[in-house]
């Protein structure tokens, strides 16, 4: 099949990689939630060779991920496993880190809460959760472009929308995930890191 392509992945991969180098261990196992096209996985895996990078997504996205892995994957990037964040069964941990990009605003809020609970459940003590994407603060958009993006999301589905940083932090903390850092990123995005206590 033709590989799926995300222009956003190409734009944001280097800024994200710079932050992942700060937060992820030099060696260990990383679970990526919602690997999407697979572009991030092959790029990050190639640059973080001490990490075993496990891709995951709903089965409908697996063919695209396989297409990227077939052409470009380094040996430390593993084929996708099926993961529905609402399910009790997650890929067998414990994991040293969990990473997800541009998923919180696509998922329903109940799914975001399930993802945070699941990540906390499968992380090693001291393990890191990194979430990349746009967030609101105090219920306010950080830019006009994010406000427009939120409108377009809600036009696709009422369950979608940019999440409030404070709400996400509150749920994360309720599952023993302590905020490490909230990093400003290009194009009004953030990369937020938590540590399992």
TrEMBL record:
GO terms for molecular function: methyltransferase activity. The keyword Nucleus does not apply. GO terms for biological process: methylation. This is Methylase. Keywords: Methyltransferase, Transferase. InterPro entries: DUF938, SAM-dependent_MTases_sf. The keyword Methyltransferase applies. Coiled coil: none annotated. It holds the Pfam family DUF938.
